[in-house]
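Before a colleague's protein record goes any further, I have to sign it off. Alongside the sequence sits a line of tokens, each denoting a local backbone shape. I want your independent view on whether this chain really folds as the tokens say. Where you disagree with what is written, explain briefly why. This is what I was given:
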Amino acid sequence: QVQLVESGGGLVQPGGSLRLSCAASGSIVSVNVMGWYRQAPGKQRELVATHTTGSITNYADSVKGRFTISRDNARNTVYLQMNSLKPDDTAVYYCNLYSRWRGVHDYWGQGTQVTVSS
């Protein structure tokens, strides 16, 4: 019912930057949270950043000051600007849309690989 299409992953050197994009389509509720999560091999999926339709943002401590999440509500698109990338940022990054409006809605993108290596 809701599809998330991601783009922007790739290989970058430490200190470099990447910008991830995720566009949602389908039956999207008007009040929701869109965000980014990541999962490295052997580790649990973890929160990176979230952004509500009310413009409230949350960041993992490990990315504060380096990553910026933004969204275009009209286009149902969320972005993640990643600066000063470190090898520890290497992971598969997943886009998420979540809402508790008229039940629980929880949708995920397919994931995009981000590799930070020299």
The mean pLDDT is 96. The radius of gyration is 14 Å. Residues 31 and 53 are 6 Å apart (CA to CA). The longest strand covers residues 18-26.
